[in-house]
Design brief:
The chain has 138 residues and is mostly helical. The protein contains 4 helices and no strands. Helix content is 65%, strand content 0%.
């Protein structure tokens, strides 16, 4: 049985980190986000199936194909996002959600609220990005 949270509830640093209320808040947030993505994907599939009309004008056809390619690329990114959401939901279940994969320290509720699939603390993420920039410049 899941905990029912007050509608105005927001996690804060004044309460124990990843207590039952916070876990339920993030579980619900992640599930809603995933549902929105899945609804958009169904809408895209329906639109692509309807939009199979062959356009006689080459410019119109090119525009249509470009729009389709952009839409499919967006859906692919969202498919990867769903995998990250599923991984975050598994971490909530196993108790590792909210803790940095690199340091084991709490990520922080404000960062998780802004990016609920975060796996690194802000400091670890910044170090990771600096390393990426250095290696990209090589």
């Amino acid at each position: 049985m899941s905990l029912v949270l007050p509608q105005a509830y927001r996690p804060s640093d004044d309460e124990p980190f990843m207590n039952e209320r916070q876990r339920e808040y993030f579980r619900s947030k992640l599930q809603k986000w995933k549902q929105e993505i899945m609804d958009e994907a169904r809408s895209t599939i329906a639109n692509l199936q309807l939009d199979t009309v062959s356009l006689p004008d080459l410019a119109d056809r090119a525009t249509s194909e470009t729009d389709r390619a952009i839409e499919l690329r967006t859906r692919d990114r969202q498919r990867k996002l769903v995998a990250k959401i599923d991984a975050a939901l598994r971490r909530i279940e196993d108790g590792s959600y909210g803790y940095c994969e690199e340091t084991g320290e709490p990520i922080g509720v404000s960062r998780l609220d802004a990016r609920p699939i975060a796996t690194l603390s802000l400091e670890a993420q910044e170090r990771h990005e600096r390393r990426e920039r250095i290696h990209r410049d090589d």
